[in-house]
Backbone:
């Protein structure tokens, strides 16, 4: 054992580590140590820590003391094995393998057979029973792997030389090359090595070892490893550990071999052993697919003793890790060796099923089961899926804006979508981008495809709200609405042609790809009884969701604007509405009334228009209050600028010009055009919207407040219970809220009378100034709801409608952020605003109700943040309600953060 100061300890014998030391020893090293200490047959070896790698990468040289520690551990290994590295008579050979904290399959380097040279190759042959062929083959593999990974010799040159050797022999099969051929190949390889490196292949085993270790350190910063880390959100500064392991050989004859196995089916979670075995081969042959593997069960026939021992070890590992394990093993002449184990990756379905099984088997409790699944997996299980059995070729790729799989006939207008849907056809609504007028078409369509816009574009937000598949920003598609067609990659797709879109990957396919519905959604919808079904997945989801509900502190509400959405969200477990947007209530048939309101020349005309809108609005709210009986419903007063309800300027100008040319009466259109021009804003997102509208247009908010209060009273009089919360958007200063509130309170008092209805008045916190003056605003607000879409937009100064599709790729590439801040809350910046507002709001008004209703309310990571900050609820689109419930439960049990990856 090496005695050095603990902080300078860079090398650990396998016997010194354990599975909890992944940060220090990497996943592979920690688990090899764990297996060693369990008494399992692991080839002896040692691990060089991630700390040594970090020090090397920081300074460009090995840290002081590392060389000596390696020496000491190597000597101990040699003593234990009774062999010396590179001994000409009886050499010890080692493999040098990378192994980071998080698994990064195939991203970093491995060098096998270190310790072979011109002399020890003979000793290896003796060890292997005068097997010259095996020894020379091992040597040529070392030169090839070492040359390529350590010295950057182009791999093709070795491949080419191997092909030449086979051609000379008249064969295609490596196994036909005999010892003499391989000896010749070693000579050729050495020449290739010398040509590219300007030096001979190193014969000194310790030098081979040191250079291989250094190459593994450096492979942490290989381009592909950097890309992989970025994609998987693995921190860049962790570094990799290096494992130096005694070589064992699966290619010593028919009584040797190598394999991989899972302790349960990683696809479905079903119990049983799953694996592949390849006789007379090394691990790299399995990966290279040189020969076909056989199912692991075959091993029982080939080598029953090893098979039984393997099964026994797998059962022990599962019991020990209390989870699905995957393993790699080698059999060398009938002796089984364990080369790796780890808690195995699995599909989303298997994650739930296995967690449920392990609870049944008494291995874990329900908290642990909840910890082991996550919202992203649940979300995956809720989408219909494409059965991509045979190859379908994607013709375009946009942003996966709202997940799911949908196929249907292409239509280009909302009206056509409604028409064809009424005939029972599936349709995909294709637009350059959608606007609020497309709502009916979006409802009628199976899916929505746009050529512009990001994840928070109109199409994306509305589609997610409806749980409808949407691909946005597929900019290879050129949409031509008047011609009813789009072009993509030289092809033309016309109205009625069928396309399929995948809202998870953003891929667009021509033709119909078959789709399977989600059984998990059927369960949430109530059409699959978890107590009666024999569907293991549904039973597991039910059990874990029930536990999440019991554990969570955050309430989960939904964003819903219609009775139908509200009803669905309740089935999915929503405990109220956190955001009822009122703008769609001003569209369709009511557009004409809104135009009258905008064009009103006198108070009387405006009052008339508002009076006509009032009963329609009241009915909207009655429906929603009924569906949400007894649960809180936050209704937000109208937010978008009013000109959004008028026709676009260019279109109107053309219509007016054409009509004037024809001598038609265009007085009304001219008035509209003048209004649109008057209301035009350079930056409408920062313009006359939200509370500002309420302050500028007399009677507008008052009409909405009255409609809400009257609806609540009507529902209560009918024996129901309505709990309305009126929310004022875009407030930046307490005075704005006070003004609106004073007017609202008068109306409420007048309408509510002694009906017993209580109406709360609160505000959105979505302008940075509101967050920073939350202490003042809380004096006038009975609740806050964080509008994280606008708070992100204004916090970063990013246009939420444009940037994701425009330049976020560069920000992601540069690592400025790992994920769009519109998708997952930016804890340091926007999150800080939320923290400040929560703290100062509650300090001013203890018990102030706090929620969030931006898109982040249904994002798994963000839900954990909102739990930490102490909000009372999150609100999200109906389809994300189960995800938010699950993550709120996980947040409640995970005080130290999640480790599941
Ligand atoms: C928000 O800004 O986060 C919000 C919920 O409001 P909207 O998306 O309607 O602007
Ligand atoms: Mg907003």
Residues:
């Amino acid at each position: 054992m090496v005695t050095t100061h603990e902080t300078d300890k860079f090398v650990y014998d396998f016997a010194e580590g354990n599975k909890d030391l992944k940060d220090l020893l990497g996943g592979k090293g920690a688990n090899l140590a764990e297996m060693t200490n369990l008494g399992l047959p692991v080839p002896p070896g040692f691990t060089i820590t991630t700390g040594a790698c970090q020090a090397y990468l920081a300074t460009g040289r090995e840290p002081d003391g590392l060389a000596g520690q390696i020496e000491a551990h190597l000597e101990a290994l040699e003593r234990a094995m009774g062999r010396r590295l590179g001994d000409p008579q009886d050499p010890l050979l080692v493999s040098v393998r990378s192994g980071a904290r998080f698994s990064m399959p195939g991203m970093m380097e491995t060098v096998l057979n270190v310790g072979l040279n011109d002399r020890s190759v003979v000793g290896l042959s003796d060890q292997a029973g005068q097997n010259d062929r095996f020894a020379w083959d091992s040597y040529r593999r070392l030169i090839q792997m070492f040359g390529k990974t350590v010295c950057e010799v182009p791999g093709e040159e070795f491949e080419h030389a191997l092909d030449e050797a086979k051609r000379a022999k008249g064969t295609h099969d490596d196994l036909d090359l005999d010892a003499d051929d391989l000896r010749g190949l070693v000579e050729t390889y050495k020449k290739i090595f010398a040509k590219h490196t300007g030096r001979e292949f190193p014969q000194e085993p310790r030098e081979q070892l040191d250079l291989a270790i250094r190459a593994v350190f450096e492979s942490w910063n290989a381009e592909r490893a950097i890309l992989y880390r970025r994609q998987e959100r693995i921190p860049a500064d962790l570094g990799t550990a290096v494992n130096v392991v005694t070589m064992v050989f699966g290619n010593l004859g028919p009584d040797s071999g190598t394999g991989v196995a899972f302790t349960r089916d990683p696809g479905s979670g079903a119990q049983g052993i799953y694996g592949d075995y390849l006789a007379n081969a090394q691990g790299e042959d399995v990966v290279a697919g040189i020969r076909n593997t056989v199912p692991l069960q075959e091993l029982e026939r080939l080598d029953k003793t090893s098979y039984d021992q393997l099964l026994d070890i797998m059962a022990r590992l599962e019991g020990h890790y209390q989870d699905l394990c995957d393993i790699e093993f080698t059999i060398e002449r009938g002796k089984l060796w364990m080369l790796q184990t780890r808690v195995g990756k699995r599909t989303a379905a298997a994650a739930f099923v296995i967690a449920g099984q392990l609870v049944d088997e008494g291995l874990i409790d329900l908290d642990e089961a909840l910890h082991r699944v996550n919202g992203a997996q649940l979300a995956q299980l809720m989408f219909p899926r494409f059965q991509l059995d045979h190859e379908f070729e994607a013709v375009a790729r946009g942003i996966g804006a709202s997940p799911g799989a949908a196929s249907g006939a292409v239509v280009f207008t909302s009206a056509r979508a409604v028409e064809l849907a009424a005939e029972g056809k599936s349709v995909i609504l294709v637009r350059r981008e959608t606007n609020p007028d497309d709502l009916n078409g979006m409802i009628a369509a199976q899916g929505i495809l746009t050529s512009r816009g990001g994840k928070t574009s109109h199409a994306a937000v509305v589609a997610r709200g409806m749980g409808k598949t949407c691909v946005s920003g597929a900019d290879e598609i050129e949409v031509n609405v008047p011609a009813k067609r789009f072009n993509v990659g030289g092809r033309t797709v016309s109205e009625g042609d069928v396309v399929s879109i995948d809202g998870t990957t953003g891929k667009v396919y021509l033709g119909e790809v078959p789709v399977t519905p989600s059984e998990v959604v059927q369960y949430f919808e109530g059409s699959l009884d978890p107590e009666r079904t024999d569907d293991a997945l549904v039973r597991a989801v039910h059990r874990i969701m029930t536990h999440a509900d019991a554990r969570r502190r955050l309430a989960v509400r939904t964003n819903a604007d219609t009775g139908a959405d509200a009803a669905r969200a309740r089935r999915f477990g929503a405990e109220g509405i956190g955001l009822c947007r009122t703008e769609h209530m001003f569209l369709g048939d009511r557009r004409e009334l809104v135009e009258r309101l905008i064009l009103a020349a006198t108070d009387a005309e405006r009052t008339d228009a508002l009076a006509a809108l009032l009963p329609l609005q009241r009915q909207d709210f009655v429906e929603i209050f009924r569906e949400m009986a007894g649960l809180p419903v936050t209704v937000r007063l109208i937010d978008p600028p009013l000109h959004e309800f008028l026709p676009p300027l260019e279109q109107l100008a053309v219509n007016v010009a054409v009509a004037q040319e024809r001598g038609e009466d265009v007085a009304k259109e001219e008035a509209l055009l003048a209004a649109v021009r008057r209301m035009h804003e350079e930056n409408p997102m920062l313009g006359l919207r939200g509370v500002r509208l309420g302050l500028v247009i007399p009677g507008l908010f008052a009409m909405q407040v009255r409609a809400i209060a009257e609806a609540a009273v009507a529902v209560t009089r009918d024996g129901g219970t309505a709990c309305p919360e009126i929310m004022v958007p875009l407030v930046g200063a307490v005075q704005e809220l006070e003004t609106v509130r004073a007017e609202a309170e008068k109306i409420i008092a007048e309408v509510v009378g002694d009906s017993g209805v209580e109406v709360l008045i609160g505000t959105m916190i979505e302008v940075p100034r509101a967050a920073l003056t939350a202490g003042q605003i809380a004096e006038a607000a009975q609740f806050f709801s964080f509008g994280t879409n606008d708070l992100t937009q204004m916090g970063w100064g990013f246009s939420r409608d444009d940037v994701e599709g425009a330049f976020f790729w560069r920000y992601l590439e540069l690592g400025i952020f790992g994920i769009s801040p519109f998708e997952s809350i930016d804890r340091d910046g926007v999150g800080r605003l939320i923290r400040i507002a929560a703290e100062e709001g509650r300090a001013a008004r203890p018990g102030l109700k706090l929620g969030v209703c931006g898109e982040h309310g249904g994002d798994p990571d963000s839900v954990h943040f909102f739990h930490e900050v102490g909000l009372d609820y999150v609100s999200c689109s109906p389809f994300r309600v189960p995800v938010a419930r699950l993550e709120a439960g996980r947040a409640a049990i995970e005080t130290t953060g999640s480790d599941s990856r």
